[in-house]
Amino acid sequence: MKPVEEKPIDREEWARVGEYLRKTLDQDELTHCMRCGFCLPACPTYRETGLEQASPRGRLALMKAVADGMIEPDAAFADQMNLCLGCRACETACPAGVQYGRVLEQTRAGIALREPSSRIVRGLRKLFFKHLFPHQHRLRTLGWWLTLYQRSGLRWLVQRSGLMRLFPEHLREMEAVMPPASSMGVRERLGEILRPEGTPRGRVGLFRGCIMDVLFTETNCNTARLLVKAGYEVVIPDAQRCCGALHAHAGEEDTAKRLARENIEAFRDAQVDWIVSNAGGCGAMLVEYAHHFKGDVRMEEDARWFSDRVRDISQLIADVIDDLPLKRLERRVTYQDSCHLRNGMRVNQPRNILRQMPGVTVVELFESDRCCGSAGIYNLTQPEMSKQILDEKMTHVKNTEADILVTSNPGCLLQMKWGIRRAGLEHRMRAVHLVDLLMEAVE
Amino acid sequence: MLSSDVKRELQAVVGPDDVRDDPESRLAYSYDATPMYQSMPDGVVFPESTEEVQAIMKIASRHRIPIVGRGSGSNLSAGTVPVEGGLVMVMTKMNRLIEIDQDNLTATFQPGLITKQLHEAVERIGLFYPPDPGSMHVSTLGGNIAECAGGLRGLKYGTTKDYVIGLEAVLASGEILRTGGKLTKDVAGYDLTKLLVGSEGTLAIITEATVKLLPLPEDRRVMVAHFTDLYAAARTVSQIIAERIIPCTLEFLDQGTIRVIEDYAKIGLPADMAAILLIEQDGPTSVVERDIERIAEICRQTGAAHVQVAQSREEEVQLMSARRSALSALARLRPTTILEDATVPRAAIAPMVEQINRIKEKYGLQICTFGHAGDGNLHPTCMTDARDREEIERVEQAFEEIFDAAIRLGGTITGEHGVGLAKAPFLEWKVGKSGIEVMKGIKRAFDPDGLLNPGKMFAKETRRRVVIT
Predict the structure, then answer these.
(1) What angle do helix axes A349-356 and A434-441 make, rounded to 10 degrees?
(2) Given CB atoms, is B327 within the 8 Å cutoff of chain A?
(3) Using the 8-state DSSP alphabet, how is residue A53 labeled?
(4) What residues of B are in contact with residue A56 (Cβ under 8 Å)?
(5) Which of B24, B332, B385 sits opposite A76 (nearest CB)?
(6) For the purposes of burial, counting CB atoms within 10 Å of the CB of A328, is it exposed (0-12), middle (13-18) or buried (19 or more)?
(7) pLDDT per residue as tens digits for the range B376-406
(8) Taking the CA atoms of chain A, what radius of gyration do you get in angstroms?
(9) Shortest Cα–Cα distance, A225 to chain B (Å)
(10) Which of B72, B332, B337 sits opposite A40 (nearest CB)?
(11) Is any Cβ of chain A less than 8 angstroms from the Cβ of B332?
(12) For B408, phi and psi rounded to 5 degrees?
C-alpha cells in the first residue's frame, strides 16, 4: 500500500473519527480479545490476503489501538474495516465470545462520520440506505420500473445494444441473473391476514423484508403459504420497514434504530406469537434489536419482547415437517449456509429439513460455512474480493455435482445465481431458496 | 518505519507488496497471543522461498536490523513480539507440504504450513503426526518447531522435538544450514537439529523441516473419572503409569475449572468434585479395550466417585466436552486470560495444585488449573483485567511464586509455551548461571551480532527467587 499524501481537511476529518471512536468503542469487548488467533482460519479475507490486519484479530487490534490512542484512524484503517464481510464466522470460532460484529458496527459508525472518499461508494450508499431501503413505497415503485424494464424488451435491448458495457463487469453479470422484479409485494398479493389450515399452532407475523419483497416476492408468498399449510395464522403488518441490518453494518446507526423502532411497534400492535423471517441477514438483525436498545428505558422492554419472538422460517418448519404433505423430489441437493443465519442467529435447521425431505439426497458442500462473498452490498462495494471468494466457492459447488443449490437468504441466493453463471453451470444446476424448494414438494 | 534504502533493497528481493511499513501493518504484527505484550516493528516482510529468506537476512545483517521470525502468532510467551523493533519476517507464504515419503515414513514441509493441515494430509493415507498443540488449527509448523510445541498426546508420544529429524535453516549471516535428514540414526557431531527445535527463533530462521511419521493407531477409546479428593486423582495418575499403561491422553481439571465450565456450558459436571481425569488410549483394538478396562478398574480402586467409559463416538465427544470447553469458559469470565504452563514431575501434581491454590488465596486471585496430568504439564490460568494495574501486579507476584514452587518440586518454568520474553527473567532459576552462560555461548556462535529475535530467552536481569513462607 502506497502512503497517500493527505489533505489537511482529511486529517481533520480523521481526527474527528478518532475522537468519536475513543468515546464510543466498547473497551470491554476489545479487551476480551485474547489474541489467540483461533479466528484466523475462519476469516475469508485473512485467507485471501494472508495479512494479519485483514483478520478479525488484526482488526480488533487496530480498533483497540485507535481506542487507546496508539494510532489515528486513516484511509487504510477504513479500508481494512470495509474489507470485512461481516460474516461473523470469527464469532463462532472465538473461545472468548468476543462480539466482533458489534464493535465492527461501532467502528463503521465512526468512519461514517467522514464522507466516503469514493464517489461510487458514496452514491451507492446514499441511494440504498437513505432513499431506497427505508421506504417501502419507493421500493414498490422501483419494483414496478424494474418489471417494466425486464418485461418490455428494454432489458433485451440494453443487453444487446452494448449499453451494459458502460457498467463494470460485476454489475453486468449481476444484472443478468437478477430475478423478475415485482411491483406487488406479498401483502398486496395475499392480503394482510391468512387463516391457517388444520390445527392452529399460533399467530405468526411475517417479516417481508425490503429487497426480498421486490425481487423475491414469490419466496415471500411461498413462506406465507408454507406457514398456512403448517397450521399457522399469518399476519403481514403493513407498518413494518426494512430491518436496518445494512445500515447498522455500514455504520448508519441512527437510521437502523429508527427502522427498528417502527418494526417493533408494527409487530407489537399485530399481537403475534412469533415474528418470522426468511432472510438470514434480516433475522440476525431482528434478534439483536434488544441489544440495540439496551439501556433505553422507553424501548428496552419492547425490544426484548420482539427479539425473543424472532424465528427463522426453518425453525418453525422443522418442528412440523412431519405433518407437511411432501411429495418425493428425486434431486441431489447441496446447501450454502447464510452467515448471519449460522453465526448470527445460530440456526442449523435448514440442513435437518433438507435431510427429511423425501427423495432428496443431501450432499455436503465443502466449507459451506464460509461466506459466499455477497454480504449485504459487499459484492457491489468490494467486487474484487467478492469475486475471488465466490469463484473459490463455486469450485466446491461444482464438486458436489448437485442439481439444486439451496440457500436461506436473498443476498446469498443472488450471489449463488451469479456464481453459477460465472462458473458456467447454468445448464446443470439452479440456486433456490429453501422455502421455494419446500413449496415445490408440497402437494 | 524502514529507511528508504532498506525498503528499496527488500523490495528488490520480495517485490513491493511483500514489504510493508504502513502503520496498520506494523501494528498488526506488534503482538502475539500473549496478553499485555506489544511492540511496533519497523516493517514486515513476507518471503516466499529460502533464497528470499537468505537475501533478506543478508540485508538485515548488513544494516544491523533485528529480525523476528513469525508464523500465525499464536504463541504464549511473547516470543514473536518485536521488542527491539526491526523486521518481522512472516513465514506464512512458505506453506507448502513438499513431500510425504511413504517408504521412509517422513514428511517434509515449509515452515508456514498449518499444523492441522499436516495432520489431515498424513491421516488421509493412514499415517500419524502426533504433536497436537491446542492451537493446531491456526499455528504453523515452523512455530511449533521454534517453540517445541507439546499438546495432549505428550505423555505417550512425546513432543515436537521427538519428531523433527531434519532441518534447513538460514543463519544470521545469510548462510544456509542443513541438519539431519530422513535418517533415524545419526550421531555425526552435535545434534544441531534438536538444538534448533525450541530455540525460539534466536539461532536461525527455519525454512524447511522433515519429521518422522508413525502408522495411524487402529482404534481409540475415551473415559472419564471424577474424584472428590485431589490426592486420589493424583495417585490414580501414578498408579496407571506404575501398572505399565501409557495412555495417549491423560487430562486433568481442578475444581475451579469444573465449576466455571459447569456455569458456562451446563453439561452436568458435579461442582463438588475436586478433580476430573479425562483419559484416552489408542492403538490396536484389543490393547485399547484391555487398557481402558484396566484403567477404569484402577480409578475405582483409588476411590473415583464416578467412572464412565464412552460407548460411542457421540459419548466420547460428550465426555471430552469438559476439556474442550475449558478455555472458552475461562476466557469469558474476565477480560484478560493469562494461560501459564508450570510443569512438574507427574508424581508432584497434587502438591503443585495445592501450592497454586494456596498462592491464589494469598493474592486474592481467580486462578483455575487444568492441563496434561500425564506429563505433569499444568496450565494454571488466571482470569484478570489488564487495565487493573494493581491486580496485575498481584498476578505477576503470584506467578513468580508458582514458578518458584514448580522448581522446588523438581519442575520447570515452562513445559510447552517457551521462554520468550514473558519467562526470560525466570530462566536462570531453572538452568542456573552456568546453563545461561553455555546458552549465551551457543547464541554467539550462531548469531554474533544478536540480530535474531533479540530480547528473547535471555533477560537483562534475572528475577530474585521469592521465599515461600
Answers:
(1) 20
(2) yes
(3) G
(4) none
(5) B24
(6) exposed
(7) 999 999 999 999 999 999 999 999 999 999 9
(8) 22
(9) 38
(10) B72
(11) yes
(12) -60, -30
Lowest mean pLDDT among B213-222, B227-236, B260-269: B260-269
| Nearest residue to A405 (alpha-carbon basis) of A420, A390, A391, A395 | A420
Burial class (CB in 10 A: 0-12, 13-18, 19+), A12: exposed
pLDDT of B95-151, one tens digit each? Answer: 999 999 999 999 999 999 999 999 999 999 999 999 999 999 999 999 999 999 999
Contact B24, A77 (CB under 8 A): yes
pLDDT greater than 60 at residue A362: yes
Please tell me if residue A68 touches chain B, with a CB cutoff of 8 Å.
no
How far away is chain B from the Cα of A406, in angstroms, using its nearest Cα? 28
A65 touches chain B (CB under 8 A): yes
Q: Which of the four pLDDT bands, split at 50, 70 and 90, describes residue B266?
A: confident
Mean pLDDT (chain B) is: 95
pTM listed for this prediction: 0.89
Residue-wise pLDDT tens digits, A169-225: 777 777 777 777 787 889 999 999 999 998 889 999 999 998 788 888 999 999 999
State the average pLDDT over residues A248-257.
85
Provide, as residue numbers in chain A, all residues whose Cβ is less than 8 Å from the Cβ of B34: 35
Q: Which amino acid is at B467?
A: V
Any idea of the CA torsion for B79, B83, B87, B93, to the nearest 10 degrees?
30
Cα nearest neighbour of B112 on chain A: A50
Is the separation of the CB atoms in A396 and A367 below 8 Å?
Answer: yes
Virtual torsion, Cα A242, A246, A251, A255, nearest 10 deg: -10
Burial class (CB within 10 angstroms; exposed 0-12, middle 13-18, buried 19+) of A384: exposed
Nearest CA in chain B to A71: B23
pLDDT score of A2? 47
Contact B336 A36 (CB under 8 A): no
Of all residues in chain A, what percent are helix, strand and coil, respectively (each to 5)?
Answer: 60, 10, 35
Pairwise CA distance, residues B148 & B164, whole Å: 10
CB contact under 8 A, A1 and B93: no
Supply the ipTM of this predicted assembly.
0.94
Query: B74–A51: do the CB atoms touch at under 8 Å?
Result: no
CA-based nearest residue to A38, from B258, B319, B262, B137: B137
State the best of B27, B75, B77, B379 to mutate against chain A, taking most chain A CBs within 10 Å: B27
Residue contacts between A and B (CB atoms, under 8 Å): 88
Q: What percent of chain B has a predicted confidence (pLDDT) above 70?
A: 99
Strand order in the sheet with A274-277: A193-194, A232-235, A202-206, A274-277, A310-312
- Per-residue pLDDT of B194-206, as tens digits, reads 999 999 999 999 9
Helix (H, G, I), strand (E, B) or coil at A198: coil
Task: Report, as an integer, the average pLDDT of A119-143.
Answer: 74
